[in-house]
Amino acid sequence: MKIYYFTDPMCSWCYGFSPTVKQLKENYPNIDLQIISGGFSPFSKQIVDAEYREFLEYHWRNVNRMSGQYFDHAMKFVSDTFRYDTEPSSRAMVVVQNLMPGKDFEYLSLMQTAFYVNGRDITNDEVLADLAEELGISRDVFFENFKSDVMKRKTIEGFEFSRQLGVQGFPTLLTIDNGAVKVLTRGFQKFDLLKKVVDEQLAQQNAGELNSGQSCADGFCAF
């Protein structure tokens, strides 16, 4: 089964959801999990003034309460030039997916830790290159790809794909079965509850494969 995970490196609820995704990958190694940066606030000019800091802290406290994930409320990334633009980190994710398929979740985790725990500015391409180096990607190769029109276009395509499938928020997990979109979870969810949904979807898919020769009848088509 293929599951699409729509996320954003600068989405606090996605950071809170990351342990659940980690458990999903560990418990279902045969599931094809495709991570897509859906575009939380690409190209935003939002500054982190006192009002927006209060807004962030409110959500960070809620995420911490629900998930246990640690946040450094000092927000050392805040500066006169910082804008809450999620396009650069989303593009960096696409670069890593292109250069090192299978390392995207690890890179996403590195960005989340850098931002939420260490207060590093992941809108800064130098910081993003530092994190890519931790995976073994040279700075020159990272920058060559990061600045390319191809990677910029692929990043936008991820945002557009998110909208086309009706993704209304992050994190979202969904499958596409015979052209039908099935949302597994929209928003934060703990693994034990998500597991029930995934098991149900797998059972439906297996049943559909066993009955693949049957036709639709009485207004119902098996998955």
UniProtKB/TrEMBL annotation:
Tell me which positions the record assigns to the signal sequence.
none
Molecular function GO labels: isomerase activity; oxidoreductase activity
Q: Does the keyword Zinc-finger apply?
A: no
Does the keyword section mention Transmembrane? no
The protein's UniProt keywords, in alphabetical order, are: Isomerase
Q: Which Pfam families match?
A: DSBA
Membrane-crossing residues?
A: none
* Limits of the DSBA-like thioredoxin domain: 3-195
> Mind telling me what this protein is named?
Dithiol-disulfide isomerase
Species source reads: Mucilaginibacter pedocola
